[in-house]
């Protein structure tokens, strides 16, 4: 094989992880003061920033207010320097429009939309550095930002991708692994009820292998949840402490 | 679960793009030794008490070997010896080897897979304590060397409380000294091998690598090399200069072909040029060896020369003069001059191990010998050996290591002794090697994917497969055949039609895509039949046992079942994976007798008669369509069952039953071809036989005309008809001779991937079939395995995988198969030639 | 610019404070600058980057050096291109194409200032004259928008350029003149840019009869006009623009420029000091702190 060996015979991936390991996750809630909620997450070298504005009155030409539920408005953008090769525009291209739509679907499925009729919630995510699993990082960051904004959700939404190489599923694929043309499955999941809010697949994968790959992805989501939940709890207790002090 | 610890970013610049990749460092990478008490290892690779097979006077203590990259690259021949065990192979080393030489990488991977060799791969670049970062101004080479020493130090520390020592083997004196200065044990391979007690012959296998020093000196002083030897050859350009030159059109890329008549002359077939370009003189050939891909510089027309008319053989009289007879007298174009060039650089070497014989040393008792390859186009190779006495008169294998500028001949090393010249096994070996037929025993890694015996049919198998054990199936093959891959049956149906079945061994059930077994079979491509030996494509357990549809045993098959009218019209075809139990394995002769013997009326006899009747109709139809019946001059040897020596030579007899089996195989192949083409329009593995250009037929048209026959060659049908007419009753052999010659005029049939060609080129000319493939011999042809997999996907019996859908990948496989098939054919013919000659020689009256 | 709406009383309060008492709502004097938070090397896949937070204004600048054909008018000079992205993170108003106009204005202004040959050694960015030069793409993302955006952007751009590492390339020349480029595989081989001549931007905002620097969003809402001056470390002015809908007298412009020069000089100095200490960082925590 002339291409890159994504998984060595010794069982290590190119970056030194084992097949079932996530990348290093670092995150923070409440990075901006102006927004109603914000969060920042790093999954390896993929870095995403999310802000949430709202619920507020319906602004602009983005459709009419809905009488029974809130409008979720999402925008996905990528900093022009985020990719290895510089992008010309941060958003508005097909890919980002698609991503925006995916995000919107994901969060319409999880936010308690019936609580805020006739209003709008804006979720903006921006990729600052892209190294694979961009969508996942965005979903995770947005979830944290929504929590930070205090908007009720059915559950966390955690996203994780997985790939399939040499009959072995890989968790949380990096850009290098994504770009080798193998199948990549992206799953956004509500970890408690194990419901899948979004499922997306690139490239071909035989249906027989789907189950394993899906399983690995959902395991990744749950691992993700553990990390996110711990961070939220810590953030909240710190907030509580600072409130006590003041 | 996040088990990654600290991590370091690694910046890599590919082109001018800054690429940042994560690099995790871990603390759960173990040393791999059974002697270690610190690491929790389930399956240690390195032995607890590494006592070497051969006593080593340098390292008489228990030790593990740690290899430097250059050792793995150049000395695999030594590493493969059983005396070398308990070896630590670093990830860094493995990576560099893969980058520099894929063949070496493949061999080292085989060694790692071989459990008895105890090669352990240590992932040093992801280990927290052995990871290092490149320093400013450090060359990649120095960096790798430092990484190796870092791991060496780690291992040394790790085993400091045990009696085990770690020994670094390197070819680089520099690295050895650095390691020693750091207090480690380090030897060069030469030192280490020399100190092995009782294995002096191993010394011969050491590759003669140019030490860096020598190279440097040779480049510094262009006139003389160390030892006052003359630099004989011009320098090669660097790959960088070559690429730039080719881009500008200053140089051309081509394949070097040595001249058969004159060792001083050669040709280069340059891409995009119809005629081969001529090269005169060894200096202009500049160390190119037959088959190398080279860069050439064309001469101006005034410097063109003509190939000489003299036949010259390299006697190698003067060691340090290249072209003593270079006559530069002619200025201006010579009579008959052709485009001429010189070689400026080598793009890719085509060096492989060569078979041949050793020549006596110039000085009696000397160790320096010349080696003469069986292939005349290969230059003599200089080797050094202590065991001339043993090797003289034997066929041996030698590898080329390098060809320095000051050496008249390439330098090589002895690899293996095949045996005495003239010995049957030896000669077979030579034949296989020279035709590039992979024939080594299957590696451990390959064998590990074989099913475990005793093999039984499970309940699960019975649910997914159609049970055809009740059907009266039999096989018809040549006598002595042990790899039976097809069987047949015929069953009259109530509606007057008949069910005809062709059952093919289900090899793809045992060979799963992508594993070592599959890769090996794919690389071998075909089983090679020599007169007295068969080189299997798949291990014996499969070819002669589990996949062989022997009589009376239950086997898995892939069945094609037709419902046919008595006129042999196909009403209906279906494919299924099945379990069958062949009632009998007949030879062609036995089957013929059974058919002819009117007293036999059992199900098999009726079946065979039915099949024969159908086959005749099918054949007629095919011939009407323009299929050619061509003859080949195949001969058979009857073997002495004890010694396997050929006793007599006979021409192959064609019986009706031969063509009966053939007819149904063709039918099955066509049916399958249609089916997989439907399912895989872009990537079906098919076989085509291009229409031969009319010019090919010129010679036989002439021959036929001399006897007054006019051959029509504008279509297959016309050709077949006119061949039938060309009969001279008084010379019965004439027609057959014509047919044999027609065979020679044909183009080669080829495998291809359906997406690579327009549909009208799928045609199989010889069989007059618009579409064709190979399905019926998966035991001995890899193409059939691919086709089986495709058909299995088509009938949803098996899972699909990405390679099957990749037309480029399939084409790549097909290209290899085409090459292997051609080589197998040549090898088979060469074997027949060899035995014919031996047979004639021994039957000569003394 | 992202504006906020203020009541008349609040405006009067701010204006009075500035004009009469030299005192602003956050306690500063008219010409005092707030502290800002600066960090270099936050985005590891860029050639250089910097994040700057000035109170509620936050910008992120990434510089990518890319090789490509030069401008035909200047075949032996590299160049720099600016692109400003108003992230929707800063305000929902910037969603979609909401921030484009403003972005174009700012990038044009930066382009104008950096066009000056003295700013950077553009000649050194040339790899092969007429064929291949380095172009620096300085991409600015506005993450939070809370007043005095231009100053913040200019500071961050200068810091990011200081932080920029351009891979070392060597040019091979062939006998017949064709050239090929080789990039060193050693990550330690890079060149940095000389940023000592780069100016910062100082926005001086008129509020009532007085003028202030480093205005907050509220103060900007009280102002009709401002001037933006590019000031280098010597205090010389490299460029100037007047913005806003109000008009200014020549006299007041002169006064404002005097303030801008002084502030600019100080700002440059403190920035240069910081950069010489921390400007070469290649990995920092970014948003995690």
Short description:
The complex is a heterotrimer of chains A (246), B (846) and C (289). Chain A contains 4 helices and 9 strands; from the N terminus they run E-E-E-E-H-E-H-E-E-H-E-E-H.
Protein described:
- The complex is a heterotrimer of chains A (246), B (846) and C (289).
- In chain A, the strands form 2 sheets. Chain A has a 5-stranded mixed β-sheet with strand order 1-2-3-5-4. In chain A, strands 7-6-8-9 form a 4-stranded antiparallel β-sheet, sandwiched between helices.
- Chain A has helices at 94-108, 134-149, 175-178, 207-245, and strands at residues 25-29, 37-43, 46-57, 71-78, 119-129, 158-165, 168-171, 184-190, 195-202.
- Chain A contains 4 helices and 9 strands; from the N terminus they run E-E-E-E-H-E-H-E-E-H-E-E-H.
- Chain B is an alpha+beta fold and 846 residues long.
- Chain B has 4 domains: 2-196, 5'-nuclease (Rossmann fold, 3-Layer(aba) Sandwich); 239-317 and 334-435, Beta Barrel (OB fold (Dihydrolipoamide Acetyltransferase, E2P)), CATH 2.40.50.690; 450-688 and 750-839, no CATH class; 694-745, no CATH class.
- Chain B contains 26 helices and 31 strands.
- In chain B, strands 20, 21, 22, 23, 26 and 27 form a 6-stranded mixed β-sheet that branches. Chain B has a 5-stranded parallel β-sheet with strand order 5-4-3-6-7, sandwiched between helices.
- In chain B, helix 6 (173-181) links the parallel strand 6 (165-170) and strand 7.
- The N and C termini of chain B lie far apart (83 Å).
- The model of chain B is unreliable at 1-14, 210-228 and 324-333 (pLDDT under 50).
- Chain C is an alpha+beta fold and 289 residues long.
- Chain C folds into 2 domains: 35-165, GHMP Kinase, N-terminal domain (Ribosomal Protein S5, domain 2, 2-Layer Sandwich); 199-276, GHMP Kinase, N-terminal domain (Ribosomal Protein S5, domain 2, 2-Layer Sandwich).
- In chain C, 27% of the residues lie in helices and 31% in strands.
- Chain C contains 5 helices and 14 strands.
- In chain C, a hairpin with a 2-residue loop joins strand 11 and strand 12.
- Chain C is elongated and about 75 Å long.
- The model of chain C has no long low-confidence stretch (mean pLDDT 88).
- Classes of the chains: A alpha+beta (246), B alpha+beta (846), C alpha+beta (289).
């Amino acid at each position: 094989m002339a291409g890159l060996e994504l998984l060595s015979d010794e069982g290590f991936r190119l970056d030194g992880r084992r097949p079932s390991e996530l990348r290093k996750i670092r995150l923070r809630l409440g990075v901006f003061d102006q927004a109603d909620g914000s969060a920042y997450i790093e999954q390896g070298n993929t870095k995403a920033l999310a802000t949430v504005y709202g619920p507020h009155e319906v602004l602009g030409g983005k459709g009419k207010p809905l009488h029974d539920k809130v409008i979720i408005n999402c925008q996905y953008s990528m900093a022009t320097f985020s990719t290895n090769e510089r992008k010309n525009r941060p958003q508005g291209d097909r890919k980002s429009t698609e991503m925006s739509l995916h995000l919107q679907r994901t969060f319409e499925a999880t936010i308690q939309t019936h609580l805020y009729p006739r209003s709008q919630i804006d979720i903006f995510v921006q990729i600052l550095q892209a190294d694979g699993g961009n969508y996942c990082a965005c979903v995770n960051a947005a979830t944290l930002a929504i929590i930070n904004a205090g908007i009720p959700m059915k559950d966390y939404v955690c996203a994780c991708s997985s790939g399939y190489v040499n009959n072995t599923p890989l968790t949380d694929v990096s850009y290098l692994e994504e770009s080798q043309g193998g199948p990549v499955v992206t799953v956004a999941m509500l970890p408690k009820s194990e419901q899948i809010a979004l499922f997306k697949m690139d490239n071909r994968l035989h249906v027989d292998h789907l189950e394993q790959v899906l399983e690995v992805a959902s395991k990744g989501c749950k691992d993700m949840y553990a990390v996110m939940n711990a961070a939220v709890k810590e953030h909240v207790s710190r907030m509580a402490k600072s409130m006590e002090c003041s | 679960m996040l088990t990654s610890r600290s991590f370091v970013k690694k910046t890599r610049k590919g082109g001018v793009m800054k690429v940042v990749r994560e690099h995790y460092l871990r603390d759960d990478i173990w040393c791999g030794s059974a002697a270690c008490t610190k690491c929790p290892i389930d399956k240690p690779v390195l032995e607890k008490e590494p006592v070497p097979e051969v006593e080593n006077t340098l390292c008489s203590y228990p030790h593990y070997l740690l290899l430097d990259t250059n050792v793995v690259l150049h000395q695999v021949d030594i590493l493969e010896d059983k005396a070398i065990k308990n070896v630590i192979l670093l990830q860094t080393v493995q990576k560099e080897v893969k980058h520099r030489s894929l063949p070496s990488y493949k061999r080292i991977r085989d060694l790692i897979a071989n459990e008895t060799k105890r090669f352990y791969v240590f992932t040093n670049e992801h280990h927290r304590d052995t990871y290092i970062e490149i320093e400013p101004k450090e060359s990649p080479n120095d960096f790798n060397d430092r990484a190796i020493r870092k791991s060496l130090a780690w291992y040394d520390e790790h085993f400091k409380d045990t009696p085990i020592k770690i020994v670094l083997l390197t070819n680089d004196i520099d690295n050895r000294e650095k390691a020693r200065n750091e207090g480690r044990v380090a030897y060069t391979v030469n030192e280490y091998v020399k100190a092995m007690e009782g294995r002096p012959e191993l010394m011969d296998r050491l590759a003669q690598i140019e030490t860096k020093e020598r190279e440097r000196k040779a480049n510094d002083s262009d006139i003389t090399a160390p030892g006052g030897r003359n630099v004989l050859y011009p320098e090669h350009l660097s790959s960088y200069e070559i690429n730039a030159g080719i881009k500008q059109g200053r140089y051309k890329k081509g394949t070097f072909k040595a001249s058969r008549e004159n060792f001083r002359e050669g040709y280069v077939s340059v891409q995009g040029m119809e005629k081969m370009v001529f090269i005169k003189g060894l200096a202009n050939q500049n160390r190119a060896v037959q088959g190398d891909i080279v860069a050439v510089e064309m001469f101006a027309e005034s410097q063109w020369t003509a190939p000489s008319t003299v036949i010259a053989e390299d006697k190698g009289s003067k060691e340090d003069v290249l072209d003593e007879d270079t006559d530069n007298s002619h200025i201006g174009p010579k009579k008959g001059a052709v485009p001429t060039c010189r070689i400026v650089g080598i793009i890719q070497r085509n060096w492989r191990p060569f078979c041949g014989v050793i020549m006596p040393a110039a000085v009696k008792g000397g160790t320096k010998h010349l080696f003469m390859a069986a292939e005349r186009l290969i230059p003599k190779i200089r080797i050094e050996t202590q065991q001339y006495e043993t090797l003289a008169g034997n066929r041996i294998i030698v590898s080329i290591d390098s060809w320095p500028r000051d050496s008249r001949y390439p330098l090589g090393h002895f690899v293996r002794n095949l045996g005495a010249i003239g010995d049957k096994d030896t000669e077979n070996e030579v034949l296989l090697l020279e035709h590039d037929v992979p024939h080594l025993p299957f590696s451990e890694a390959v064998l590990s994917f074989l099913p475990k015996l005793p093999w039984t049919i499970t309940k699960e198998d019975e649910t997914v497969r159609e049970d055809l054990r009740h059907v009266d199936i039999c096989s018809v093959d040549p006598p002595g055949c042990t790899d039976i891959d097809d069987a047949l049956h015929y069953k009259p149906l109530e509606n007057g039609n008949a069910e005809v079945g062709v059952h093919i061994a289900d090899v793809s059930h045992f060979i799963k895509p992508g594993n070592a077994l599959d890769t090996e079979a794919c690389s071998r491509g075909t089983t090679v039949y020599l007169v007295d030996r068969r080189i299997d494509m798949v291990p014996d357990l499969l070819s002669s046992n589990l996949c062989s549809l022997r009589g009376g045993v239950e086997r898995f098959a892939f069945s094609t079942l037709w419902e046919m009218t008595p006129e042999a019209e196909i009403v209906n075809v279906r494919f299924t994976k099945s379990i069958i139990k062949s009632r009998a394995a007949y030879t062609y002769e036995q089957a013929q007798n059974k058919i002819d013997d009117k007293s036999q009326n059992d199900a098999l006899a009726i079946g065979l008669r039915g099949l024969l009747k159908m086959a005749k109709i099918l054949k007629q139809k095919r011939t009407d369509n323009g299929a050619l019946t061509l003859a080949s001059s195949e001969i058979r040897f009857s073997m002495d069952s004890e010694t396997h020596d050929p006793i007599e030579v006979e021409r192959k007899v064609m019986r009706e039953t031969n063509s009966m089996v053939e007819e149904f195989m063709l039918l099955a192949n066509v049916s399958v071809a249609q089916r997989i083409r439907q399912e895989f329009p872009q990537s079906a593995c098919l076989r085509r036989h291009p229409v031969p250009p009319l010019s090919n037929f010129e010679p036989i048209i002439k021959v036929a005309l001399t006897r007054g026959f006019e051959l029509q060659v504008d279509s297959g049908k016309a050709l077949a008809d006119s061949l039938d007419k060309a009969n001279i009753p008084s010379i019965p052999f004439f027609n057959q001779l014509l047919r044999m010659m027609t065979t020679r005029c044909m183009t080669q049939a080829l495998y291809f991937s359906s997406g690579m060609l327009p549909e009208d080129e799928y045609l199989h000319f010889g069989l007059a079939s618009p579409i064709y493939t190979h399905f019926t011999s998966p035991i001995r042809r890899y193409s059939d395995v691919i086709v089986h997999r495709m058909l299995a996907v088509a009938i949803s019996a098996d899972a699909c995988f990405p390679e099957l859908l990749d037309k480029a990948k399939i084409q790549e496989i097909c290209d290899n198969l085409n090459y292997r098939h051609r080589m197998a054919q040549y090898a088979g013919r060469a074997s027949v030639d060899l035995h014919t000659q031996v047979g004639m020689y021994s039957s000569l009256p003394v | 610019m992202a504006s906020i709406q203020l009541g008349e009383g609040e405006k009067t309060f701010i204006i009075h404070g500035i004009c009469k008492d030299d005192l602003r709502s956050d306690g500063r004097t008219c010409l005092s600058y707030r502290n800002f938070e600066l960090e270099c090397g936050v985005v590891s896949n860029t050639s250089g980057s910097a994040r700057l937070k000035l109170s509620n204004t936050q910008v992120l600048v990434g510089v990518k050096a890319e090789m490509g054909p030069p401008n035909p008018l200047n075949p032996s000079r590299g160049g720099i291109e600016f692109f400003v992205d108003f992230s929707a993170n800063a305000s929902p108003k910037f969603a979609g194409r909401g921030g484009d106009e403003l972005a174009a204005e700012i990038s044009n202004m930066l382009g104008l200032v950096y066009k000056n040959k003295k700013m950077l050694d553009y000649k050194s960015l040339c790899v092969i004259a007429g064929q291949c030069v380095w172009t620096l793409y300085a991409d600015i993302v506005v993450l939070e928008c809370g007043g005095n955006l231009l100053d913040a952007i200019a500071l961050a751009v200068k810091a990011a350029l200081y932080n920029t590492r351009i891979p070392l390339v060597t040019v091979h020349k062939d006998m017949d003149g064709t050239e090929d480029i080789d990039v060193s595989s050693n990550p330690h081989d890079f060149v940095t840019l000389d940023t000592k001549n780069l100016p910062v931007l100082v926005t001086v905002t008129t509020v009532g009869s007085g003028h202030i620097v480093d205005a907050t969003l509220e103060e900007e809402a009280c102002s009709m006009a401002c001037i933006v001056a590019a000031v280098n470390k010597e205090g010389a002015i490299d460029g100037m623009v007047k913005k806003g809908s109000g008009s200014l007298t020549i006299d007041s412009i002169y006064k404002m420029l005097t303030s801008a020069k002084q502030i600019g000089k100080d700002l440059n100095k403190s920035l240069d000091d910081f950069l010489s200490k921390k400007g070469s960082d290649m990995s920092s925590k970014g948003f995690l702190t």
